Fold:
Amino acid sequence: MSASILPPPVTALPSLGPGRTRHLTAPLVTATPAPALRWLNLALGSLWLAGLLSLAVVVGRLPWLARWLDDPLFFKRCLVVHVDLALVVWFYAMAAALAAMRAPRLRDVGTAASTGLSLIGVVLMLAGAAVRGAEPILANYVPVIDHPLFLGGLALFFAGVLSFVIRGLLATGRVAAAELPGDAATGILAATVALVAAAATWISTRAALPAGLERLTHFELAHWAPGHVLQVANVCAMLAVWLWLTRRATGQAVLSARMARGLFGALVGPHLLLPLFSLHGADHRLYVESATWLMRWTIFPVVLLTLGLIVRHARRHGLARDGVGLLALRAGQMSAGLTLLGFVLGACIRSSTTLVPAHYHASLGGVTAAFMAAGYLIVAGARTDGLDLARWRRAGRQLWCFGIGQAVFALGFAFAGAHGAGRKAYASEQHVRSLSEQIGLGVMGLGGLVAAVGGIWFLVLMWRMQRSAAPRLTLPASS
Structure:
């Protein structure tokens, strides 16, 4: 890599970590390949669209406006597309952006076509919300609209992501180690393997579905095991971002190559069996329970061990006194904190109450906080001037705002659930029976408002960071 594309040093900050501190003289960020920026922008665009659709859901509850529309399912369809944009397109477009960082020389017509295919899929998903009479199916993991337009769009989005990450898996000779530390690159590799495993699980499950199922049951079973594997992909990508941030903030990789392969292999390896568990039928107990069992007993040991090694590494080497050190500290606090909160809330679940969404909103909030931090690093690598200290500080404050809001949101949900509040009930469907449920849901609403402010702040910061500087030179494409 030419020295001309490296960012200038960043002004030092006071000590950020509990251990000794030092100045980081190595470049803070590396040049961002064009595919990573394309996937990042698709992910950011999905969040903007999800926010606009959430306004449509609110409008649907206003009597003086809703009465002008005689399709009562329209707003539920908007809710489905909102959820899929915020939790499916955002997550897996970001996973593709990280895969592009792992294989930065993979840039040709095929990589651009993959992003274009996913973009067309998103457009079709949006169009599905406008199809009159199409039924929204609020299935777990990936809710859908039961119409070929939406289902085809969802399939195209995943086809674009999979075509890109598979090319990255096959491009082992074109991986540039300078772009990412080896342990983070291994984590991203594990995430892409999990994405492919999720697709294989979906194919085997669809083949094993019995005929004549009610549509909700059909999609619940079809998405059950693949959805669990997708969560494993999320965790692998989140851990990779943690390792990437730690390497940038300390100057040293956290894990050796052998340890990284062992940890991520222990997380992903058992889930490669899931396509086989549907052989007895997708409605068989083995299929349904094995996915839950694997996720329950493989994710938290690997996450806790990796987090412990990161904390020990940061105490031993100290965090750099610069913007990336600040970003690593804030992202670590928010992402790891939300993840641990998700573990605790998940262990408290005994029935179908709002403890369930409390658990997964905390867990997915941890992934989102990590991906937000990755977005800042990717954009910094695409600028000729990197990011100045003021922007890094604003990024740290934004992560703090989002993380605190998401934690309060989850705790409010959990408190209401601990007192019996049921899940998947809205407006007049809710039966709030006690003051405790009212307090919990009120705290949930307050936390959700703060988290929404943090999310909007993130989108505004990303837009300003990309708009305010010319693109950085990137590595030459391979032949």
Residues 215-250 form the longest helix (36 residues). The chain is about 70% helix and 0% strand.
